[in-house]
Amino acid sequence: MKQREPVSKIMTENLVKLNIQDSLTKAESLFKKHKIRHIPVVKNEKVVGMLSYTDLMRISFADATNDDGEAVETTVYDMFSLEQVMTNNVEVIAHDANIKDAAEVFTKKEFHALPVVKEDSLVGIVTTTDMIKYLVEQY
């Protein structure tokens, strides 16, 4: 196994992200359109939160959109702001930190995605799925 490779090697750079003022309806649409489970929330490119699909489903009594992302029923989502639902005080990892550092964070914490930053600006995201794919490639 290669030693000390940077997390930037395995992170997703083509990011789906939300701005702090975006709606929960927009968030659900992005989750379904891109088939993802975590979206960083930014304010001027600085990470201020993380929204998981699970967070969104916790406040929803029923799936608010069909599989095509149409026929949105926003009543439940209109009761909350993105800031109320997202995780605050998100742990981030530097783009030049090594993959092992990211793996250690995942083993100690109860989350599955880390925003990757360079000089406080969001440049990527690394997930436990990225980590597993990287490990599989090593064998």
From TrEMBL:
Domain CBS: 11-68, 86-139
Keywords on record: CBS domain
Listed SMART domains: CBS
InterPro entries: CBS_dom, CBS_dom_sf, Diverse_CBS-Domain
Superkingdom of the organism of origin: Bacteria
Designated name of the protein: CBS domain-containing protein
